[in-house]
Structures are given as C-alpha cells and as structure tokens.
Amino acid sequence: MTRSTKAGRIALKQGATIAATFLGLVLVTFLIGRVMPLDPVTAAVGPDVSQEIYDAVKEEMGLNKPLLIQLLDYIGQVLRGDFGVSFSTNQPVIRDIARVFPATVELAAAGVLIGTLIGVPLGVLAAVKRGTAIDGAVRVVTLVGHSAPVFWKGLILLVVFYAALDWANGPGRLSVYYEGVVPTRTGLIVIDAILAREWDVMRDALGHLALPAFSLGYGAAAYIGRMTRSFMLDQLRQEYVSVARVKGLSEFRVVFTEVLPNCAVQLVTTIALTFGLLLEGAVLTETVFAWPGLGQYMTKAMFNADMNAVLGGTLVIGVIFVALNLGSDLLYRILDPRTRT
Questions:
Q1: DSSP label of 37
Q2: CA-CA distance, 146 to 209, in Å (whole number)?
Q3: How much is the pLDDT for 341?
Q4: Which of 83, 114, 119, 125 minimizes the C-alpha distance to 101?
Q5: In this model, does residue 146 exceed pLDDT 90?
Q6: I need a labelling partner for 234 at 20 to 30 A (CA). Which of 245, 270, 308, 326 fits?
Q7: Which of 2-6, 291-295, 309-313 has the lowest mean pLDDT?
Q8: Which pLDDT tens digit goes with each residue over 236-253?
Q9: Which regions span the lipid bilayer (predicted)?
C-alpha cells in the first residue's frame, strides 16, 4: 500500500468518524428537546391562548409531524446554521450565540491559562518530590480543586476578595460607566481595550475577569497538575533518565531538558481538552458571577422554557468540544513522530 493511499484511507476514516459524531450529537440534542418537560409552543405563545391558536402555532413549528420527520427537519436546519428563533429575545439563536459566546471564550481562555501556569509547575514539583510532604501537599491542593463544586468556589471568592477585602471587582464583565467606551472588534473586552488603547477599561475588565477566571482556573490547575504528575512519573522511570544522570547531568537539566519536553505532547492534548471542559463548566461560574456569556444565556433560556436557545447552545458547545478532540489528536500526530507510522 502506497503512502498516499494509506493517507487517503486515514482521512476517509476520520471524515466518517467526524460525520458520525456530529450526527450523534445532533440526535442527542434533538432527543433532549423532546423529552424535556417543557412545551415550546406554550413558551412561544403563553399559557392563556385558545386551542385553535395553540394548534396553529404547533403546526407552524412543525411539532405535529412524525418524530422522524422532525428529526430530519432539525438536521437540515442545523446544517444550514439555523437553530431557530429565541422566544426570549425574538432574535435568531445563532445571532444570540455569536453575541454572547466571546465572553465565554474569554473566561475559559483565562481559566485555562491560569490552570496551566499553576498546574504544570505543581505537577512537576510533585513528581520530582514524590513521596515527600511537598508531594502530599500538592496532591491535597489538587484534590480540593478537582472535587470542590465550582459554584462554591465562586461564592467563597466573592465573599472573601470582593465583599470582605475589596481586592477585586464585583460581578459582571465591565463596570457600567465603561460600557460602550471600547468598540467591539473581537468580542473579547480585554483584547478590544488593548487595541483601542483604553488602559482604564482594560484594567477594569481584568478586575472583573480575575475572580471567575481563578474559580475556573483552580479546577483546571488541579486536573492539569494531576495529569502532569502522572506524565512526569511515567517518564522518570524510563531508562534515558538513568543514562542522563549517569552522564552527570544535574537534576534540574534532567527534569527540564530531558523529561518535561517528552511530556509536552500529552500536556498539549490535556490542556486542549481542559479548554473544552471549561467551556462546558462555565455555566455555573457565569451564573454566580453574572458573567454575560453562553452559560448565563442558556440558564436564562432554560428558566424561560426557551428550548431553541438551550439546544442551540448545547449543540455549539458539543461541536467545539468534538473539534478540540480532533484538533488535539492532530497535534498529537504532528508533535509525536511515532504516531505518524
């Protein structure tokens, strides 16, 4: 078999996997919308309309068709990027998601950055000091971060650093008097403020971002730290480490020039998947901190029985998570030459 033929088969197999995953995701979101104890027709027209109006709206929404036909119609709408109209905002759901999603990306990106900067050094330290009190302390810290509910961490941060110490800005994404000062270019307020050279707005945005980002970042640091420790311990048992020590390399060089680079591929994959998990886990954090992102949008939509918005947001997050999985797998193949064979 030639190299090009093999590559074509791999690409075909991956394409089929992507298509099957996407269809499965669409099917799951469709079924969620049908088993939820919420009536989209009532949400659209209210509970006090006549039966004739109710039936007419139900027919207009296509909910009187057989379930299989509804599924096919739903798949066709999704493929066209049509998630329906939000009953809460009277706007297309895809437009609402485009408006609120940058806030979630900004929060998740800050969280994964904090998680990486804290988690990787903690994992390396725990692996190098395996079995010592330092290792035990790091494992306790990561265990608390991994198991503590995200809303509890958020409330504690607000009570301590905002209400008691007044070290950070409160809920929200930006102070009221700074809203509208910076033109929207990327949707990321910190980046937009830097591009506009509005340094006061940037500092205010960072002050609002600090607590929710750390709330997410602590959980991310716990996961990344535990995985880093595991990767490092696996590499420290390899023969090349013993050879490097026999050659007289210092422990610092062994760890940071020999062992840690060999963990880079696995760490990149872990960090990419962590970013996807933070996008999912931002729902509670955004609710606690009144962060106007996709999580808060979906929460409000759920309370308003706005299933078009809920399913649209769920599908977007699912697609992004699948894309991150595929992207991390591609990075793994690029960075690790052994997988190319």
A1: S
A2: 21
A3: 54
A4: 83
A5: no
A6: 326
A7: 2-6
A8: 888 888 888 888 888 888
A9: 12-32, 107-128, 140-165, 205-225, 267-291, 311-332
Residues 251 and 291 in one domain: yes
Pick the closest to residue 142 from 162, 123, 170 (CA basis).
Answer: 123
Q: 52 and 110 in one domain? A: no
Are 73 and 106 members of one domain?
Answer: no
Does the residue 7 lie in any domain? no
Separation between Cα atoms, residue 220 and residue 273, nearest integer Å: 10
**118 and 46 within one domain:** no
Per-residue three-class SS string for 128-187: HCCCCHHHHHHHHHHHHHHHCCHHHHHHHHHHHHHHHCCCCCCCCCCCHHHCCCCCCCCC
Look-up of token digits 């535990």: 226
**Residue after which a domain boundary falls, among 26, 48, 79:** 79
34/28 Cα distance (integer angstroms): 10
State residue 16's pLDDT score: 77
Whole-structure pTM value: 0.83
Token couple for 18: 């992507």
Do 245 and 283 fall into the same domain? yes
CATH no. for residue 308?
1.10.3720.10
Q: Which two tokens stand for residue 212?
A: 């929710």
Q: What is the CA radius of gyration of the chain?
A: 24
Is residue 11 domain-resident?
no
Span 99-139, pLDDT tens digits = 999 999 999 999 999 999 999 999 999 999 988 999 899 99
What domain count does the chain have? 2
Q: Could you say which DSSP state residue 255 is in?
A: I
